[in-house]
Amino acid sequence: MSRVLNPRGFASDNNAGVHPVILEALREVNQGHVIAYGDDPYTGKAVAGIREIFGAGTEVFFVFIGTAANVLGLSTVTQPYQAIICPESAHINVDECGAPEKFSGCKLMTCDTPDGKLTVDMIAYHMHGIGFEHHVQPRVVSITQATELGTVYTIDEISEIAGYVHSHGMLLHMDGARISNAALSLDCTLLEMTGGAGVDILSFGGTKNGMMYGEAIIFFNKTLCEDFKYRRKQGMQLASKMRYIAAQFSAYLKDGLWMENARHANLMAQKLYTAVKDIPGLTVTQKVESNAVFAKLPPEIIPALQQEFFFYVWDEELSEVRWMCSFDTTEEDIASFATKIRSLLQ
Predict the structure, then answer these.
(1) 220: which of 131, 271, 272, 306 is 20 to 30 A away, CA to CA?
(2) Is the CB of residue 26 less than 8 Å from the CB of residue 250?
(3) What is the CATH number for 273?
(4) Are residue 177 and residue 326 in the same domain, yes or no?
């Protein structure tokens, strides 16, 4: 019996498949026995590869998913009486089912960010009650690169936030689920906009950019993670067959595959923007700086459009939608999508 595949769409870069190079890397390491739980040569090679990019003094830990990377990274450096400052739209606030609060015990203090980006002034709004036992104490600022709205912090913006955070004895965490797209947008190295800009903890993601699964938590200061191996185990994120996460990262970083995939996804988003920006009745709402396009549409056409090209409504009240491009999005996908939008709006 044949099965009908879901139509290609713009819902999420998670919906895309796995890059063939990653699949081949998994096949290559699927030979024989190696020691489990990361004491294997493949994991050692992957960690060394990440340190070549982010610095020899970093500590690197692999986990299965991005939520675990964020939650474990944040809970390692916080106490339950402390607070984490983040944008209201942050993944840790909206899409992690309360896991950061549950496992860290911390309060999330959010900022309304029209473009998804925190500023020092926004952070400063929460900097009161310091040393007062009746108030939670700010400990970490968490930013996302690229943001949930597809925008990108410049290196100077990250450095300014890091300087402010560190001057108050706090730490800077970066959710890097789409960090590769941000790096290609800025034309900078991964280190320049992370540890080089003052980031203390990074969730380094590859799942949205061609990997099957697996994330890396990177600590730029080893003193922050002295007991992390216990937290990872207790958090149910210590992979027994870790070689299969490690092999993906090695392939992902080798020969610039991460750059190739992100460059293509970003380019497709720009092409999508160009194809739809002048359609009457459609308004693009955010700068297109990575692999996302946000737009407002008449609500009555959305269901018909979703039937052929699935995507998510970002804000029902505003009738704002999100369209994500992936490493395998094609120009044909974009042309067909734009044609359908035009036909529905005529």
Answers:
(1) 131
(2) no
(3) 3.90.1150.10
(4) no
Tokens of 234: 């207790």
Three-state DSSP at 322 gives strand
pLDDT digits (tens, 9 = 90+) for 119-167: 999 999 999 999 999 999 999 999 999 999 999 999 999 999 999 999 9
pLDDT in tens, 173-213: 999 999 999 999 999 999 999 999 999 999 999 999 999 99
| pTM, entire model | 0.96
Say if residue 313's pLDDT is above 90.
yes
Place of tokens 């969730």: 203
What is the residue whose two structure tokens read 């496992």? 103
Residue 217 CB neighbours (<10 A): 24
Q: How many independent structural domains does the chain possess?
A: 2
Name the helix (H) or strand (E) containing 42.
Answer: helix 41-54
Distance CA 139, CA 106 (A): 9
**Most distant CA pair in the chain, distance:** 67
Q: How far is CA 277 from CA 47, 294, 303, 307, in A?
A: 42, 11, 20, 22
Domain boundary among 255, 289, 306: 255
Evaluated on CA atoms 153, 159, 162, 164, the torsion sign reads: negative
